[in-house]
């Protein structure tokens, strides 16, 4: 379709919407069909405007102005609000659009304010983070806030162009909630949004992605442009479409906002006494932290699978299944239809759970840890079978089920070496490579099976025994969970166990990306895999890039790399990100985020709008993705040097009378971030075992922007006299003998005391307490919870230089 000249183009709905976002909590948000309907929108600002509050005894510390800017800007993560219940309102309707290729009718030209179309004669208020161009949208961060028109430079692989998208991030206030089906372009599948040109006489709207006209069945026929603001999708860059229903045929929704799916705890019974004592302490604290309505089940595994029965009261009783093979249908049927109770609410089973944990005994045989038989795969199969329960197509009626997604928490002290999904005890086995590959495929299949049944599997490993990460990783990853390694079953393990059980998660997520002006997606890195064509609705000329998400959680993000097919001619480029998922109440949520970036001709204008921290994280994820082995990591470290040289060559300026190029001053912090990437644990040699590096890399590839940035480039904070803190560049010069320093590296937080300060007992104790309080507050909502390690100068001098 040919574009209509500007003078004949229909007027856009608006450029800077007058309505701020309604205060609703984003996913994983809780929607209950029993509570009142959404209230009216109220003004609110986007996240990140309030300063971070970091308290230390006896009062909150104050950040003084740094002596010089920190190497990496600190971004405070907003506090997570409690889930907001939501009610189904009557009159929900399903609407569709009618596409046409007719030319746009003649219309008077819109008024413009600073180059943006606005309603006639009205100056709209400043947009919030969910309005306007959306450059401060909390869900999407671009590597540059403007797009370079020249294809050659925009597509330069050394710098590149892309975005970090966190579709499940929690912010307050959240996006507007709409209780009807979204209107979509029948040509390309894009969603109607605030940038669409709308003909108020006919109600037709023009898609910003493919420029085709679509009908609204008269819905958008209004008397003035201002009347279009009553539709949230035409007044905000981000909107949530909600449909109450359920994916499970036997699901019965309840109104209790504290509802959660059942939690199965799988415990390795091949632990030595010291490890078992730590684990028992963590498990006792874990069940005490659960809400009374949470349902739990307990399984131990070794050569057999023991499923504990809560119906015996104070007595410890378990049904035992063989671990050398998958459970049969008959054995699961006996468990499901028998008299035993294997999933029970905390308020009824807490004493029994404590008794079970106390009854666990250490491994008795004189067998090395790595050689002990562990039927982890069979234990997960049994837990899945019990969670799925009986078939819902039973003649005796509807079966009431738990409302939330289910979780399996595996507490492992060694590898899976017995039964399905197992590997030989020794890596020197002549067929180990083949058997490992077979086990990985089996674990991947089991992970996908869990994901189809809305069950997330988190695997928490502890101790010094190698756990064969390549085998266990697919099980956690494909189910939407995480595999974490810990030194022991102590404090950090227990905290991660609690945070894993309480983090809300959506399931059956589908992530769609659409771009205008010949922009195309070249790579997506994150917690998902490319969706098959039959897994989503397709349109006649749909050029979207679709990802099947393993789960939808707050601490996740996708790194999206993009290129252009040719030089860009238009003044704006449009991007639309949509995620469709099912929340814990089985309500269907479709979050649509539409953003607009201005295009520029000049290289200096483009570089001035590059977001160095975002660009660093995207480059880091692209690099780490290729570091699959230790030898690959060495190659990637060398590639970082070549990347910096190429950026200077393509985007820098040549020095007078020299063949050398100056690195662009607009990207001054980028090389420093890449230096930390090269020397840090992701690619460097700080961590000794390849399993540990593999787990960290997988976590980094899926992590949110904030956590990814901390893992890439540490944040350095110095404790000052009077209880204040000062953020400084992460250079070794901050390691002064009279100072205490906090180094936040994402998965680890180091506290360092200088020699002079450490010698003063009273001051060092106060400084250490203040630094630890700061570290705990910095990581209060972080998952996985970092280790907090304290050192004195004699010990840390051997460690921190590796980071600096």
Automatic annotation (TrEMBL):
<protein>
    <recommendedName>
        <fullName>Protein transport protein SEC23</fullName>
    </recommendedName>
</protein>
<feature type="region of interest" description="Disordered">
    <location>
        <begin position="90"/>
        <end position="132"/>
    </location>
</feature>
<keyword id="KW-0256">Endoplasmic reticulum</keyword>
<dbReference type="GO" id="GO:0090110">
    <property type="term" value="P:COPII-coated vesicle cargo loading"/>
</dbReference>
<dbReference type="Pfam" id="PF04815">
    <property type="entry name" value="Sec23_helical"/>
</dbReference>
<keyword id="KW-0968">Cytoplasmic vesicle</keyword>
<feature type="compositionally biased region" description="Low complexity">
    <location>
        <begin position="36"/>
        <end position="53"/>
    </location>
</feature>
<feature type="domain" description="Sec23/Sec24 beta-sandwich">
    <location>
        <begin position="507"/>
        <end position="599"/>
    </location>
</feature>
<feature type="domain" description="Zinc finger Sec23/Sec24-type">
    <location>
        <begin position="182"/>
        <end position="215"/>
    </location>
</feature>
<dbReference type="InterPro" id="IPR012990">
    <property type="entry name" value="Beta-sandwich_Sec23_24"/>
</dbReference>
<dbReference type="InterPro" id="IPR006895">
    <property type="entry name" value="Znf_Sec23_Sec24"/>
</dbReference>
<feature type="region of interest" description="Disordered">
    <location>
        <begin position="1"/>
        <end position="67"/>
    </location>
</feature>
<comment type="similarity">
    <text>Belongs to the SEC23/SEC24 family. SEC23 subfamily.</text>
</comment>
<dbReference type="Pfam" id="PF04810">
    <property type="entry name" value="zf-Sec23_Sec24"/>
</dbReference>
<dbReference type="InterPro" id="IPR006900">
    <property type="entry name" value="Sec23/24_helical_dom"/>
</dbReference>
<dbReference type="InterPro" id="IPR036180">
    <property type="entry name" value="Gelsolin-like_dom_sf"/>
</dbReference>
<dbReference type="GO" id="GO:0008270">
    <property type="term" value="F:zinc ion binding"/>
</dbReference>
<keyword id="KW-0472">Membrane</keyword>
<dbReference type="Pfam" id="PF08033">
    <property type="entry name" value="Sec23_BS"/>
</dbReference>
<feature type="domain" description="Sec23/Sec24 helical">
    <location>
        <begin position="613"/>
        <end position="709"/>
    </location>
</feature>
<keyword id="KW-0963">Cytoplasm</keyword>
<dbReference type="Pfam" id="PF04811">
    <property type="entry name" value="Sec23_trunk"/>
</dbReference>
<dbReference type="GO" id="GO:0006886">
    <property type="term" value="P:intracellular protein transport"/>
</dbReference>
<feature type="domain" description="Sec23/Sec24 trunk">
    <location>
        <begin position="264"/>
        <end position="490"/>
    </location>
</feature>
<keyword id="KW-0479">Metal-binding</keyword>
<dbReference type="InterPro" id="IPR006896">
    <property type="entry name" value="Sec23/24_trunk_dom"/>
</dbReference>
<keyword id="KW-0653">Protein transport</keyword>
<dbReference type="GO" id="GO:0005789">
    <property type="term" value="C:endoplasmic reticulum membrane"/>
</dbReference>
<dbReference type="InterPro" id="IPR036175">
    <property type="entry name" value="Sec23/24_helical_dom_sf"/>
</dbReference>
<feature type="compositionally biased region" description="Low complexity">
    <location>
        <begin position="90"/>
        <end position="110"/>
    </location>
</feature>
<comment type="function">
    <text>Component of the coat protein complex II (COPII) which promotes the formation of transport vesicles from the endoplasmic reticulum (ER). The coat has two main functions, the physical deformation of the endoplasmic reticulum membrane into vesicles and the selection of cargo molecules.</text>
</comment>
<dbReference type="GO" id="GO:0005096">
    <property type="term" value="F:GTPase activator activity"/>
</dbReference>
<dbReference type="InterPro" id="IPR037364">
    <property type="entry name" value="Sec23"/>
</dbReference>
<dbReference type="GO" id="GO:0070971">
    <property type="term" value="C:endoplasmic reticulum exit site"/>
</dbReference>
<keyword id="KW-0813">Transport</keyword>
<feature type="compositionally biased region" description="Pro residues">
    <location>
        <begin position="15"/>
        <end position="30"/>
    </location>
</feature>
<dbReference type="InterPro" id="IPR036465">
    <property type="entry name" value="vWFA_dom_sf"/>
</dbReference>
<keyword id="KW-0862">Zinc</keyword>
<dbReference type="GO" id="GO:0030127">
    <property type="term" value="C:COPII vesicle coat"/>
</dbReference>
<dbReference type="InterPro" id="IPR036174">
    <property type="entry name" value="Znf_Sec23_Sec24_sf"/>
</dbReference>
<keyword id="KW-0931">ER-Golgi transport</keyword>
